[in-house]
Amino acid sequence: MADSMIQQPTDSDTRPAAGRRFKSALLVLVGVLVVVVVVWGVLSSRMMAGKKNTFYIGLAAPLTGQFSEVGLSMRRGVELAINEINQNKELGDITFKLAMADDQSGQSGEHRAVEAAKELTANSQLLAVVGHYFSGPTLAASPIYQEFQVPLIAPTATNPAVTAKFPGNFSIIPDDYYQSVFLANYVLYGLMRQKIAVVHTNTPYGKSLTEFFVRELEIQGSQPDSVIQVEGSAFKPEDLLPSLKNLMEVEIIFLAMNYSNAVHVVKWLKDKGVTADFIGGESMGGPHFIRGAGIYAENVYAVTPYLPNLLGENARRYEANFVQTYQTNPDWVATHSYEAVRLVAHAVRHVGAERSSMRQFLSKIIREEDAIDSISGPIYFDSTGSSRKHIAIGEVKGGRFVPARFQFTYAKYPELVKVRKESTRAFKMDGRFVKRTTVVFTGLHVNEIKSFDPVAGNFVADFLLWFRWDPDQNEKLNFEMTYGKVLAAAIREKYYDKLTNNNFISYDVSAQLDGVFPLKEYPFDQQVLKIRIKPKVKNKEDLILVTDISDDSFLRKDLGLKAWKDKQHLQFTSENEGIWSYRNPKYNTKLFQLNNSQFNYNILLERKTDQYIIKLLPLLVLVLLAYAMFFINFEYTASRFTVGVTTLLSSMSFHNVNKVDVGYLVRIDTFFTTTYYFIFFAIIETVIASALHIKGKRPLAAQLDIAAIIVYPVLMISMAVVLFN
Questions:
Q1: I need a labelling partner for 426 at 20 to 30 A (CA). Which of 108, 118, 381, 724 fits?
Q2: Alpha-carbon distance 256 to 614, whole Å?
Q3: Where are the domains of the chain?
C-alpha cells in the first residue's frame, strides 16, 4: 500500500532538476576552463622563460656632445632593428637587448671610446658591438673588442685600418680607399671634369681621402690643379684666401673633410663667387650637411649611402616603419646602424650566438655572389672585412639628396664591355669594368583601376607615366610592360629643356597587367596590384629607372574600388633579368643574362569584409537554428531531425552560392566545411539522445542535451577564433 502511494516523477517534475544540472554543469565547465587557462599560461611562461636566451647588442656612439645628432641616428637604427627582430621572432628563442655606451667622440679626443668599450665588454652576454661613429675612436677601442673576441660592426667609420688592423672588425660603409677611387673616377668619367681642386682638413679622415683620391687621379692619367689643407678643428677662411684665385678657375672641388667642416667651406667659397661644383665623401651625403649648409648645399654632389629613389621595396617599407616609429625620415647613419644589427642577426641565424663563430662566418663573405641582402644593397667584404657594397652618388636638389643623373654600375660580362666599349662608356676601376649609366627619373600616377579579376589574375589600369632624363646617352626613350600589355598609349607632352638639359616625355596609358593573387584568406585577403615598367631601348642595361616622387600621397586619390580598401601605394626600382645574346657567334655562342632596371608601382588593397559579413548572416542563422535542436523536447523528435537536415542542406546550398572559383580551399570554404561537421554533430546527438529517450533513459538523454548545449557553442567559437585569427 505504501508502495502504491509513491508517485512516479513526471516530465514537469524533471525540468527543475534538469535546470539545476544544467547550471551545475555550466559552473563546473567554466571552472575547469579557468583552471586550464591559468595552468597553461603558467606552464607556457615558464617554458618560454626557460627556452629564451637573451643577448646584448652594444652601441658605442656620441650620444652627447657636438655630434649627438649622429649618435641619435645610430641609436634609432639599432633600436628599430632589435625591436623588429624580437617582435617577429626571427631568431626563435634568442632575443636581443640594447646596451649603450656614450663615447662622447668628436674629431679629436678618443679617451672615452676606450672607456665605452670597457663598459660594454664587461657584459658577459654581449654578442656584438655597433660603432663607433668616427674612425679615430673606433681604432682606439678596437683592442678591447679584440681581447674579448667581440665582433665589431662599424656602420660609419671609413679608415681602412679599422678592419685591416683588427680581424673581427667589419664595416657597413665602404672605406676611404674605395670611396676615393670611386670619386676620382666619377669626377673624370661621370661628370667629365678635368680641372680639379682638392680641399682637405688636416685630420686623419681628410688626409686619408686625399691620399687615395690623388693617387687614383694619377693612375687615370690626371692630377689635381691644387691641393689645399685647412684646419680641421676650426675652419678659418683666411686659410683659403691664397688659393682663392685657383679655386675660381677649376671645374670641381673635392672636399675631403667631415660634414661640419664642409658646411663652412662651401658657404665661404660660394659667397666669394666660386662657381665650381663640389663633391665629397659619405660624411657630406646626408641631411646633417644639408641642414648646416642650407641653400648653399644645392647642387653639391656626395657619396650618398642611402638614396631611397634608387632602392627596392624593402627599403620603402623600412622607411615607412622608421617614419611611423620616430616621426622623421631615416638618414644613412641610422640605416647603416640598422643594417649592422641585421648583419649580426644573419650571423646568429647561421652559426648561433657565439662570438668567435660569428667573426669567422662574416670573414668568409668576400664574394659578390655570397653577398647578404640589405635594404641599401648587397653587403660583402674584401679580405680585410671592409665593405664592398655598391656606391651611389647623390646631388642636392630642392633641399634633399636625389640620385645624380649618372651612376656607375659594374659590368657583368667583361667580354661584352670590350665589344661595346664606346657605346657604354666603360672603363676600368680598381680592376673591374665599370659603366656610366644614365638615370631616368620615372613617375606614375594611377587615374583608375577599370577592372580587377583576382581569379583570372589580371587587372586593367589607366595611368599617367612620365620620364625625365639627360639625353647625353639616350636621346630616345620608350617603355614596355613587364607581365602585361599596353592596350593604348598616347604621348601627352614631349620636349627638351635647355636650362636643365632634360628630356621629358609623358604618356596617357591604358594597360592590362598580369599578376598572382592568392585567395587563400578570402574574404579577409589583401592583394597587391603591380604595375611594372622597363625601358624599351637597344641597351636596357645602360639605364636606371628611379622614382621621381618619393611620396605621392599628396597626389594620389582613393581608387574607389567597391569591394576594396585602397591601403597604400609604393614606388620603387628593381632589376629584371633576361637573356641577351642567345648564343650569338660574335660572343663565342655564350648565353648572357643581363639585368635591366625596372620601375615598380605597387597598390596594396585590402578587401572590405563588411559586405561579406552581411552575406554570411544567413549562415549564422543556420548555425543557431542547428543549436536550437538541443532545446526541442523529445516529444518532437521528428521536428529535431527536420531542423537538422534542413539546416545542413541549406548551408551546403548557401556555400555553393558564395563559392570562389579557384582550385583550392579558401578560408571561407574551410569555415563552411567546418559548419557542416557541427550541424552533423547536432543531428548525430539527436539520434543518440532520442534513442536513449525511447529506451526510457530519459535523465541520461537530458544530460546529453545539456552537454551538447555547452560543448556546441564552445567548439563553434574556438573554430571561429582559429580560422579568423
A1: 381
A2: 67
A3: 53-173+311-370, 176-304, 436-608, 611-724
DSSP designation for 583: S
pLDDT band at 550 (very low <50, low <70, confident <90, very high): low
DSSP string for 362-416: HHT--SGGGPBP-TTS-B-B-TTS-B-PPP-EEEEETTEEEE-SEEEEE-S-HHH
Ordered DSSP codes for 132-167 = -SSHHHHHHHHHHHHHTT--EEESS---THHHHSST
Q: What is the pLDDT of residues 378-387, one digit of tens each?
A: 999 999 999 9
- Measured from the Cβ of residue 463, the count of other Cβ atoms closer than 10 Å reads 18
Alpha carbon distance 631, 629 (integer Å): 5
Q: Output the CA angle 549-555-558, nearest 5 degrees.
A: 125
Ranges of H-type helices in 171-330:
176-185, 204-219, 244-249, 259-271, 287-293, 313-326
pLDDT of 333 over the 60 cut:
yes
Distance from C-alpha of 85 to C-alpha of 91, rounded to nearest angstrom: 7
Local structure of residue 9 (DSSP, 8 states): P
List, as one string, the DSSP characters of 43-78: HHHHHHHHH-EEEEEEEEE--SSTTHHHHHHHHHHH
Residues 673-678: contacts with CB under 8 Å, at least 24 apart: 674/719, 674/723, 675/619, 675/622, 675/623, 675/651, 676/648, 676/651, 676/652, 678/623, 678/626, 678/712, 678/715, 678/716, 678/719
At 499, is the secondary structure helix, strand, or coil? coil
Q: Is the dihedral of CA 450, 454, 455, 458 positive or negative?
A: positive
Percent helix, strand and coil across the chain, each to the nearest 5: 45, 25, 30
**So what's the architecture of 53-173+311-370 in CATH?**
3-Layer(aba) Sandwich (3.40)
Whole-number Å distance between alpha carbons of 305 and 377: 9
- 53-173+311-370 and 176-304 have identical folds: yes
Q: How are beta strands 53-61 and 126-131 bridged, if at all?
A: parallel
User: Residue 546's pLDDT is what?
Assistant: 93
**Would you say residue 7 has pLDDT above 80?**
no
Contact 690, 682 (CB under 8 A): no
What H or E segment, with its residue span, contains residue 130?
strand 126-131
Integer angstrom CA distances of residue 422 from 418, 419, 533:
9, 8, 27
Distance, CA of 399 to CA of 290 (rounded, Å): 7
Q: What is the CATH number of domain 611-724?
A: 1.20.58.390
The count of residues in the chain is 725
Looking at residue 82, what is its pLDDT?
A: 98
Average pLDDT of the residues in 497-507 = 91
Mean local confidence (pLDDT), 62-74: 93
Kind and range of the H or E run holding 308: none
**Which pLDDT tens digit goes with each residue over 599-617?**
999 999 999 988 777 777 8
Interatomic CA distance for residues 334 and 328, integer angstroms: 11
pLDDT tens string 427-471: 888 888 898 899 999 999 999 999 999 999 999 999 999 999 988
pLDDT band at 539, cuts 50/70/90? confident
Top-tier CATH class for 436-608: mainly beta
Domain 176-304: CATH superfamily, name plus number = Response regulator (3.40.50.2300)
Q: Tell me if residue 229 falls in helix, strand or coil.
A: strand
Nearest to 303 by CA among 427, 202, 184: 184
The answer to whether residues 493 and 504 touch, using CB atoms and an 8 Å cutoff, is yes
Phi, psi dihedrals of residue 258, rounded to the nearest 5°: -70, 160
